[in-house]
Amino acid sequence: MIPLRSSEPHYTRPTVNLVLIALNVAVFLYELSMPNYALNRFIMLHGVVPDRLSYASILTSMFIHGGFLHILGNMWFLWIFGRGVEDVLGHAKYLFLYFACGIAAAFLFILLNANSTVPTVGASGAIAGVMGAYLIKFPRAYIRTLVFIVVFITTIDIPAAFLLLYWFAIQFFSGVGSVGYSSASSGGVAWFAHVGGFLAGMALMFLMPTRQRARTWYRDV
Prior knowledge:
Number of strands: 3
CATH superfamily: Rhomboid-like
Structural class: mainly alpha
Shape: globular
Distance between the termini: 24 Å
Number of domains: 1
CATH topology: Rhomboid-like fold
Helix content: 55-70%
Radius of gyration: 17 Å
């Protein structure tokens, strides 16, 4: 399932969201310009390596991606879910939430993989936090979603609560199933970083004051 657009209206320009996407894309283009040996060194230096943790790498790792699908998926989910969250929080609080969730995601991953020497990169933990925040603020929104059913492709409107909780369940149970394996042996996905970011986003949205918006995006039932 691929989300295409969300039903809640936006009243402000998603400036922070656009800047975050632009920075991630700029860093990825910089990665593409490097020869392999330099790229590997760059990732080892600026990615999160739990066995030899550098606190600065927790921030720098959020802007590094491992391939086209990695950055495309992350930036698309950030665009779909980040606009509404930034709109109700405001630019400054949205930026705080984004980085706070990324940091929370990294620390949970480090806690569960303290001896790992494999670098972890990507904005997935921070974006998972944005998705958790979206779930709290817009549980009754609908997400127009591209669905693949065997050989058929169609679009349907899926309740945001269902889609996001389904996504969270996949991350959680995939994380449980990967306990005891290195990130390399489990496909390179830091499942529990996603879990940590998502839960942090939910918690922060409960704690942070938001703007009141008209609920015209609710669907009558």
